[in-house]
Amino acid sequence: MKHIPFSRRKFLKTAALGTAAVGIPTIIPAHAFGANDRVRVAVIGVNGRGKDHISGFSKLENVEVATLCDVDNVVLQERAADFEKNHKKKVKTEQDLRKVYEDKDIDAVSIATPNHWHALAAIWACQAGKDVYVEKPACHNIYEGRKLVEAATKYNRIVQHGVQLRSSVAIQEAIKHLRDGLIGNVYMARALIFKWRPDIGNQGPSAVPAGLNWDLWQGPAQAREFSKNYVHYNWHWFWEYGNGDIGNQGIHETDLAMWGLNVGLPEEITSTGGKFLWNDCKETPETLTSSYIYPKQKKIIEVEVRPWMTNKEDGVEVGNLFYGDKGYMVINGYNDYKTYLGRERTPGPARKEGGDHYKNFVDAVRAQDKKLLNGPVETAHMAASLAHLGNISYRLGRTLKFDPEKETFIGDKQANTMLTRKYRAPFVVPDKV
């Protein structure tokens, strides 16, 4: 894997507060955005998170959701009908995202496909001259994340990672408190992912449903027979398509942990867990405990995934706890933080207030200024990579040593093979973007 020299330390410093080619033609939009220019957006993947993308962009002034795209034509037409009913206007539909990228009138694409498509869809969009809002995780493996960073740089595109907490007024304030030393020397982040994940059974192979382009749905992944266990949500629990809950809900928490501690990728990773509840066909672990060590900075990130019947930790089911030598901070969800100071745990500053991540993206698109992004592409790569590192340690069953500058494991050929995947033509993430 080619390493692009990039100062993560410089990037982390400037972005610390978060305020700041197969068949795909290179198309640079003919116009430059002005303050009053309409931004035309295509939403790709409209079954799950895509519904929120449609709603979020539709609410913004002078933004047009112009095209909806999904490989499942039944879902696509349902969503188009809903859109036309709610907005009293027609919307274009496409099943193949490559046709969307050929449309010169589309300024930006918003990607809400399954994980295994995120990076390639975003890279192709960059190559086609489109700005990109991509759901978490931005990549299915570490190699893809680096390629996406390279593509965004090479084609000078605006790429926003879909982690809404980056635009939360409360969370931005919380990070500033951490930087300013409110709780002292911040040495630990504990990321919590306690979600209700039931038994999915084992439905086995079946006929492909009418309207679904199964070949296109699989895209970069190796071909399998269709199963209802994959479509439309439970693909998260299969390695070909998803990354388990640490790479699902957990990306919000890995991103926040790294942001709060002001660190990049770790040097040592230990991850253990397994399936202890259900005898179903999930491949990814139900329960996962991962530790990430930063020996030079004397910091640690702990990530805890629990699927069922668990206590909360200081009221948190999904969020982060930060520990310093003068107190600790509790971040609950995406928009709420509290602090407790000293041995008596005296309540300190607290706030609950959200933000608009879609608007932040559109503002950056209009200005064509990456510095305006709250969730820029490098943070996307690092947040996803932290989850991928934990999964690799779990799957190999051992502690791993990692070089965060070269983005490779040290003296471990087997682990290094898991930095990427085998791609299925023509859906190949290119080495040279």
Search tags:
six-stranded parallel beta sheet, TAT_signal, nucleotide binding, Gfo/Idh/MocA_oxidrdct_glycsds, Gfo/Idh/MocA_OxRdtase_bact_C, single chain, Rossmann fold, 433 residues, ten-stranded mixed beta sheet, 30% helix, Dihydrodipicolinate Reductase, domain 2, 16 strands, 12 helices, 2 domains, alpha/beta
Given the structure, what is the number of helices? Answer: 12
CATH topology of the largest domain: Rossmann fold
CATH class of the largest domain: Alpha Beta
Shape: globular
Question: What's the topology here?
Answer:
Elements: H1 8-15, E1 39-44, H2 49-58, E2 63-69, H3 73-87, E3 92-94, H4 97-101, E4 108-111, H5 115-127, E5 131-135, H6 142-154, E6 159-162, H7 169-180, E7 186-194, H8 214-218, H9 250-261, E8 268-274, E9 287-294, E10 299-306, E11 318-324, E12 327-332, E13 336-341, E14 346-352, H10 357-367, H11 377-396, E15 400-403, E16 408-409, H12 413-417
Helix pairs in contact: 5-6, 6-11, 9-11
